[in-house]
């Protein structure tokens, strides 16, 4: 039976409101000393500004930190990230992990259910629509964190997605706090900084955030997936890797993260990366070609990437 998990303390307009407190709790728990030292140095504001507005992402609804050290996040962005997490997690499990386990005659934790991918795809289409126009999240029919049946298979995916989503947002928030730590905003205001230098500040913030996430416990695979999803979710905004005048190209940010992960060749991080590129290829008909055989998802990923460049 579907149950509404919203409490009075969950303020906001979109179903993602029920996870609002999870974001900051894990952020502080992860490295209380770090967060507190930034706050006592007046580099980081104690409160995160949580914008409640039913607006599309292109109307300045993406996260940033201002010159007073206040991190700004927006409900539509949070909804977008959750939907992207849900879709790719379901796609990875139902489309790759479970069928491959069955093929190898190994035991599976659940039966394959392709219907779940169809539903997740609808949710992903909703997420992409949020980039340019706002619409209400259909809680009755689409997976969401507020109104669901915990005991259903979908409920299982929702709970797992919640955890992954918090990990993605921890990365995003640590990226912003790294800007505060290194006083990047002040630098941008006071000095004439060339485009290339500005992009390096972004890489510096990514690097710091990744180090903070990975060095503070939890499951390394989930953390890597969270960081990967955080970076790759930007892909669906346009048909190329370009980060514009403020951000490095997405493939460069991904490569920086992968280097720090120092991940195994058979890690699910590669599978998720391949899925992102393939779904992106489908969205913009980039015409990427798949060879008949690859040794690993890592090889496949780099082959696809080389075709885009
Ligand atoms: Zn940044």
Brief sketch in words of this structure:
Helices cover 58% and strands 4% of the residues. With 309 residues, it is mostly helical.
Describe the structure.
The chain is globular. A hairpin with a 5-residue loop joins strand 3 and strand 4 (71-74). 58% of the residues lie in helices and 4% in strands. The mean pLDDT is 95. It is mainly alpha-helical and 309 residues long. 36% of the residues are buried. The protein has a three-stranded mixed beta sheet. Bound molecules: zinc ion. Zinc ion binds at residues 175, 179, 202, 205.
Which strand order spans the largest sheet, edge to edge or round the barrel? 2-4-3
The overall number of domains is: 1
Number of continuous helical runs: 11
Mean pLDDT across residues? 95
Question: Regions with pLDDT < 50 over 5+ consecutive residues?
Answer: none
Quickly give the structural class. Answer: mainly alpha
Characterize the biggest β-sheet.
3 strands, mixed
- What form results from the Cα inertia axes? globular
Percent of sequence in beta strands: under 5%
The separation of the N and C termini measures: 48 Å
Query: What are the bound molecules?
Result: zinc ion
Radius of gyration: 19 Å
Give the key terms.
single chain; 309 residues; mainly alpha; two-stranded antiparallel sheet; 5 strands; globular; binds zinc ion
Topology:
Blueprint (H helix, E strand, L loop, with lengths): L2 E2 L15 H11 L1 H9 L8 E3 L12 E2 L5 E4 H29 L10 H19 L14 E2 L4 H29 L2 H7 L4 H21 L4 H13 L17 H12 L6 H17 L12 H12 L1
Parallel strand pairs: 2-4
Antiparallel strand pairs: 1-5, 3-4
């Amino acid at each position: 039976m579907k149950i509404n998990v919203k409490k009075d303390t969950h303020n906001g307009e979109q179903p993602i409101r029920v996870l609002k407190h999870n974001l900051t709790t894990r952020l502080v728990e992860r490295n209380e000393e770090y967060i507190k030292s930034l706050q006592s140095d007046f580099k980081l504001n104690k409160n995160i500004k949580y914008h409640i507005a039913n607006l599309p992402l292109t109307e300045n609804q993406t996260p940033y930190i201002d010159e007073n050290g206040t991190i700004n996040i927006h409900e539509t962005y949070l909804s977008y990230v959750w939907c992207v997490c849900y879709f790719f997690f379901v796609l990875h499990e139902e489309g790759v992990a479970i069928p491959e386990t069955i093929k190898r005659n190994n035991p599976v934790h659940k039966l394959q259910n392709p219907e779940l991918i169809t539903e997740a795809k609808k949710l992903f289409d909703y997420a992409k629509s949020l980039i340019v126009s706002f619409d209400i999240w259909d809680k009755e029919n689409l997976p969401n964190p507020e109104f669901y049946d915990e005991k259903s298979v979908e409920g299982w995916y929702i709970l797992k997605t919640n955890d992954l989503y918090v990990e993605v947002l921890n990365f995003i928030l640590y990226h912003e706090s790294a800007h505060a730590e290194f006083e990047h905003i002040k630098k941008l205001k006071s000095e004439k900084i060339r485009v290339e230098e500005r992009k390096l500040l972004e890489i510096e913030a990514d690097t710091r955030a990744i180090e903070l996430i990975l060095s503070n416990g939890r499951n390394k695979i989930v953390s890597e997936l969270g960081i990967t999803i955080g970076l790759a979710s930007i892909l669906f905004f346009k048909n190329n890797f370009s980060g514009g005048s403020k951000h490095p190209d997405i493939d460069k940010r991904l490569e920086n993260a992968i280097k720090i992960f120092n991940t195994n060749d058979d890690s699910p991080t590669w599978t998720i990366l391949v899925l992102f590129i393939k779904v992106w290829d489908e969205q913009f008909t980039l015409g990427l070609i798949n060879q008949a055989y690859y040794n690993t998802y890592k090889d496949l990923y780099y082959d696809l990437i080389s075709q885009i460049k």
